[in-house]
Amino acid sequence: MFEQKKLHPITILYNIFRQLKEVLFPVIAIFVFGGTSSKWDFFYHIGLIVFSIFVLVGGVLSWFFFRYYLHQGELRIENGVFVKKKRFIPFERIQSIDFTEGILHRPFRLVKVKIETAGGAGEAEAVLTAIPMKDAIKLRDYINKHKNQKNEAEDEILTDNKQDLYKISIKELLILATTSGGIGVIFSALIAVFSQFDDLIPYKKIFSELQHAVSSGMVVLTSIIFILFILLWLVSFLITMLKYANFTLAKIDNDLVISRGLLEKKQITIPLSRIQAIRIRENILRQPFGLAAVYLESAGGSLNDNEASSMVIMPVSKKVKIKKLLLEIMPEYELVDDLHAPPKKASFRYILRDSWIAVPIAGVSFYYFHLWGMISIVLFVLLPSWGYLKYRAAGWDVTNKQLTISFRHLEKTTLIMKKNRIQALDYKEGFWQRGADLASLNCLVASGMGGSGGTIYDLRKEDVEKVYNWYSYSVKK
Question: What is the mean predicted confidence (pLDDT) over 226-231?
Fold first, then answer.
């Protein structure tokens, strides 16, 4: 049934784009700056023509010599133009099979298939760039059916025991997009892009004009900044809407299956056996309304795909609804409402830890901007308030086999970990903490290629010792 097959011919375009992406900046540099001398102009053009032919022929040959098929309980992939490569992946090693349906895939009903295995390092074990949707479904179902069942007939197809768990509503999608923190990511990306063109963009002239705007009218500058942030927010809103549209969560046997996306549709599989912890995140805009997002920390993922290691299963929802869903998916985890907080004497340390930076910032602002620098005084209110919010967010709880911690950076995070999944637990006691009988607690679980966890500062020393002894006993045993 699964004879040797090629990828769809559209893979040629993907191969060409991938090669062009790797040499994009050198080619642009040669094209823009290299052709200034008429002496070398002929060689530049010949070089570009040869390079274009090489990329085109390479894309065609890579597609032509690529084969995939199933044989004797293995997914087999053969590729290579001059050097033939063969990769055999046993079914029992395959942990997840994820589908992505991009803009170029959808008109032809194609998908990109990413296959991850236990112990895979650095990147996905195999990627089928473009195959028909029906073939991808058959491939996934066949492998799932025949894991550890090599003697069964090869023409049997799995009938999914699918249980729908969650589907994002229009209201939730709008709330998610409106309160998304993606504006910061977009702003950072713009800065990173502009920094690559410091020789082309007249930053000094722009800065001098900005100084003139500050001196001539703060209203103009404030209006420009306001418009810029509105535009960034609109971009963030649109990206979030497209990314999480049609978000659904289902359970098929022992796997969670997530489907999402409007322009680029993705289907991601999370084996329940690979889940290391539950992470609940509440940003500053959603927390007052009792809204949060739920992530699963997984041992999967790769260096090139961090999203697979921390996968969102509920983008935004009420905590009551979250508790009900977690009870249905993973009843062994308990969502604790009342956590043990740090002592009151630790509040000053939280406030001080986040407030001292206001002093040098205010000093520099006063020195360079004089009266306008007085605006920086607001930091002496904002930063202590932020430190106090961190103090209020901190907490911990230990049950028989579970550790729950909560902390805040930009958003409040609650991390729920089973004792046998915790990779490391550190007890930290600084010089200034000793006099106040305080200590810090750091936890780490496996996630992706590294780890993920959190730290709670300035707990009672006896509380940290209690958690440490609870964990260390399990290790010794």
Answer: 82
The token pair at 371 is 């009266």
Name the pTM for this structure. Answer: 0.74
**44 has pLDDT over 70:** no
> DSSP letter at 58?
H
**What radius of gyration do the chain's Cα atoms show?**
27
**Chain mean pLDDT for the chain:** 80
Q: In 3D, which of 121, 332, 163 has the Cα closest to residue 249?
A: 163
**SS3 labels along 343-407:** CHHHHHHHHHHHHCCHHHHHHHHHHHHHHHHHHHHHHHHHHHHHHHHHHHHCEEEECCCEEEEEE
SS3 assignment, position 60: helix
270 near 260, Cβ under 8 Å?
no
Lowest mean pLDDT among 24-33, 119-128, 272-281, 414-423: 24-33
Average pLDDT score over residue span 186-193:
47
What's the CA gap between 125 and 273, in Å, rounded?
Answer: 19
Structure confidence at residue 354 (pLDDT): 82
Tens-digit pLDDT profile for residues 446-477: 876 667 889 999 999 999 999 999 998 644 44
Residue 132 is predicted with a pLDDT of 92
Residue 179 in tokens: 């309160």
CA-to-CA distance for 164 and 26, rounded, in angstroms?
49
